[in-house]
Amino acid sequence: MANDLLKGKVGIITGALDENSIAWKTALKAHEQGARFVLTNAPLAMRMGAIKELAEQTNSIVIPADATSLEDIEKLYTEAKEHLGGNFDFILHSIGMSTNIRKGKSYGDLNHEWALKSYDVSGLSFHKMMQVAEKMDVMNEWGSILALSYIAAQRVFPFYTDMAEAKALLENIARGYGYRFGKLKKVRVNTISQSPTRTTAGSGIDGFNEFFDIADLMSPLGNASAEACAEYIVMMFSDYTRMVTMQNLFHDGGYSFTGVSEELMEMVRKSG
Question: What is the pLDDT along the chain (272 residues), one digit of tens a residue?
Fold first, then answer.
């Protein structure tokens, strides 16, 4: 139900690949709530996805940009500002990539060149986007900048390998820049640690299906869906969360604070 939570707000949404992605669902929800925005993704990802279809559904435009390139980010902000008619109220960083995971490399056999690329794409790009935003002065006061994270930044998940460090870097950047941007322009910066979600990227991780089921059993509310996460992001873009910053916000049905569930214990009993 539309109630114009984001009426009059404009921004940038990165990382929408297909209808399964959180960024895609966020764009639909933000549009429903009255926002105007520009969609962006890396040129390669755009060729793989259907982002132009999303742009048509949301009356937005697509501006290709590599988030690891300062020059591309500058071009993105310049063109987006021209299209939207002013500075931004929100930015969503929904970007992640690990060649090591895609190639099935274990944590003890990482290709370190690939790992550095993972850290750049999945973590450092968040700093780059905010650094350029600060230097170009493109954020409105009381704006909201968000990135999508995962609990592997705090806990060990063997299948998540180098992406765990990338997410830890991402969350620390949110704290560092959250302080800086708060002082500069009252802009808030947060990360959202989402449940395992059946996105194109997430489903490609070895062991994902098994862990999805385990997390669902562990969470008192069950796994949070991509659509529910999109609704949470919209709330974080809205004026109702103006005093929330420098936080890693768990959106996982309670998984992050559950030691063990009765359902999981019953499974172990039966298997024994």
Answer: 568 999 999 999 999 989 999 999 999 999 999 999 999 998 876 666 688 899 999 999 999 999 999 999 999 999 999 999 999 999 999 999 999 999 999 999 999 999 999 999 999 999 999 999 999 999 999 999 999 999 999 999 988 999 999 999 999 999 999 999 999 999 999 999 999 987 766 656 666 788 888 899 999 999 999 999 999 999 999 999 999 999 999 999 999 999 888 888 888 888 86
- Burial of residue 204 (CB within 10 Å: 0-12, 13-18, 19+) is exposed
Q: Where are the domains of the chain?
A: 10-271
Backbone angles phi, psi at 3, to 5 degrees: -135, 25
- The CATH class for the domain spanning 10-271 reads alpha beta
Distance of alpha carbon 98 from alpha carbon 121, whole angstroms: 9
| Integer Cα distance of 80 and 88 in angstroms | 9
> What are the beta bridge partners of residue 172?
none
